[in-house]
Design brief:
The protein is an all-alpha fold. The chain contains eleven helices and no strands. The chain has one domain: Tetracycline Repressor, domain 2.
């Protein structure tokens, strides 16, 4: 109850709002009552992180390593987007709860089953995880850009590009990068496949596609 309400508070008001006093107000109890459930705020944050991680769907163990890591990456991203308030503590707070260990075990299992050496079985999933966390950390504050793009609302960059001297920025003027593309679904897939392609270079030869 306490952790679920804390997660809801994060989703509604952001990480800065997660205080013992604010949480007790939402629960309708005095702040001291929370200490029956958590030792302190750090313990509360670790509990909330573990709760959020527990919501990540674990892919089938029957998938090959590439499909497994690909699906796991999307599971983590989608869970974090459903609970955007968790992004701050997940990125900044070292945590290794039971559910995080379950995710880690899955990554190691699909890699070792595929025949990867222990070093690459560890570093491969780590590369995917850090990519997902970094991408979502950029994505959440920019969700408004994506929504505006879907509504056809300009972001102002076209005006900037129109004013750039082409002799200095010929490629920028030609490509005209879109701000929302930085955190789009297509960009996420592009980066994820690049990482998986790199991991595949370390796969045992008989296992390579």
């Amino acid at each position: 109850m306490v952790l679920r309400e804390a997660l809801a508070l994060l989703d509604d008001e952001g990480f800065e709002a997660l205080t013992m006093r604010r949480l007790s107000e939402r629960l309708g109890v005095v702040p001291m009552a929370l200490y029956r459930h958590v030792a302190n705020k750090d313990d509360l944050i670790l509990g909330v992180i573990d709760l959020a991680v527990s919501l990540v769907p674990i892919p089938s163990p029957d998938l090959d390593w590439r499909s497994g890591l690909h699906q796991l990456a999307h599971s983590i991203r989608h869970t974090m987007l459903e609970h955007p308030g968790i992004v701050g503590p997940v990125v900044t707070q070292p945590a290794l709860g039971m559910h995080a260990l379950v995710i880690g075990e899955y990554g190691l299992a699909v890699m070792r089953t595929a025949g990867f050496a222990p070093e690459h079985a560890d570093r491969g999933p780590n590369a995917v995880l850090t990519y997902v966390l970094g991408f979502v950390a950029l994505e959440v504050p920019r969700l408004g850009l994506l929504e505006n793009a879907r509504r056809g609302i300009p972001n102002g960059l076209d005006i900037v590009y129109d004013q750039l001297p082409i002799e200095i920025f010929p490629h920028t003027v030609e490509v005209r990068p879109r701000a929302e593309e930085l955190v789009s679904e297509a960009q996420f897939e592009y980066g994820l496949h690049c990482i998986l392609d790199g991991i595949e270079l370390h796969a045992p030869r008989k296992r390579r596609r």
